[in-house]
Amino acid sequence: MRVALDATPLVLSSGGLRRYAEELSLALAREFPDDDFTLISDQAFHISADFPSNLRNGGGARNALERKWWLAGAALATKRHNADVFHGTNFEVPLLHLRPSVMTIHDLSPWKNPEWHPRGTRAGRRTPLLLRLGAADAVITPSEAVRQEVIARFGIAAERVFAVPLAASLALSPPGCPKGTEPYFLFAGTIEPRKNIALLLSAWREVRRQFHVRLVIAGRTRGDAAAIRDEPGLQLLGEVTDEHLATLYAGAAAFIYPSFYEGFGLPVLEAMQCGAPVVISRDAALQEVAGDAALSAESVEELAGAMRSLLSNPELAEEQRRKGFHRALQFSWRSTARMTRAVYQEAIGRFA
């Protein structure tokens, strides 16, 4: 099989979209060495790992027509590389439907709450049109929760939508962490309105009245995120390397992820894989991913209570670390690659 993958998420410096495109393309190439995988985009991109021989950079637009990337360029590049199927890894497929196409819809945040995307998004405008026109022969979602949302919102036949779970990167392995340091709670991820950072800050301030515990926030800040003011005990790290992130996960008293809404929640599995107890919101996708391996909270009082419990009860913290680690082992990018390739076969059959 010859596959063209949208590499546009690899333009980003970090975050779940980049992680998905990079880990999936590498896993596909490694799991299916007889297949050919080509990354294409109209923007310059970088992949951090060494390319397997059957994964290559196919370049971007070659002329004025191809610079109209989603109208024609992506379709023409897919045809030029003689790909059997195109995979739009980030809400889009070519409008010019020359080859079988698969679209990944990560979540419905562009349509659920305008405050989460106040300036609007290209996906918010184009994705519904592409789906109405049948430009995607199959759709991938990262969770069953989002699968059901996609079917209901866009009226897509259930047999065309496939839930394909993700996994923590093997680059995030639990390192040895220094002992005797001041305890801290951790949030890691793209800082944007739907992550509910205000709730985390409020709960941490309540806990800090009783415990001397820091809050560490790591990740790229999106332009529409509310400013986080400096205060004692709060550490804002910005983007960090995978090595640093793994150390942060491993050393945390708990990883806190109070997001209003997620399509999957990769940082939850990353934290579990590195041995951190995890506290999440009651968002459907997060609950699906974490299973019974995370504590959950919605209000300031609930979240502060869970944080206090993990600080004051070493047995509970150890139990959550163990449950989380075993939960993370149930997911792998090899499995994601195998399930994704099966969707490619489905799209090819439907296009024919």
Task: Please explain how this structure is put together.
The chain is an alpha/beta fold. It has two domains: 2-167 and 332-351, Rossmann fold; 184-328, Glycogen Phosphorylase B (Rossmann fold), CATH 3.40.50. Helices cover 39% and strands 15% of the residues. It is built from twelve helices and 13 strands. The protein has helices at 16-31, 69-80, 109-112, 122-132, 144-154, 197-208, 242-251, 266-273, 284-290, 300-312, 314-328, 333-351, and strands spanning 2-6, 36-40, 55-57, 85-88, 101-104, 138-141, 161-163, 184-188, 214-218, 234-238, 254-257, 278-280, 295-296. Strands 3-2-1-4-5-6-7 form a seven-stranded parallel sheet, sandwiched between helices. Helix 1 (16-31) crosses helix 12 (333-351), helix 6 packs across helix 10 and helix 8 (266-273) packs across helix 11 (314-328). The longest helix is centred in the last third of the chain and has 19 residues, at 333-351. The protein starts with a strand and ends with a helix.
Main attributes of the structure:
single chain; 352 residues; Rossmann fold; 2 domains; 12 helices; 15% strand
CATH superfamily of the largest domain: Glycogen Phosphorylase B
Main beta sheet: strand number and arrangement? 7 strands, parallel
Helix content: 25-40%
Shape: elongated
Please name the CATH architecture of the largest domain.
3-Layer(aba) Sandwich
List low-confidence stretches: none
User: What count of domains describes the coordinates?
Assistant: 2
CATH topology of the largest domain: Rossmann fold
Instruction: Indicate the mean pLDDT.
Output: 93
By CATH reckoning, the class of the largest domain would read: Alpha Beta
**In terms of structural class, how would the helical and strand content be classed?**
alpha/beta
* Beta-strand percent range: 5-15%
The neighbouring-strand order within the major sheet is 3-2-1-4-5-6-7
Count of alpha/pi helices: 12
- Quote the distance from N terminus to C terminus: 15 Å
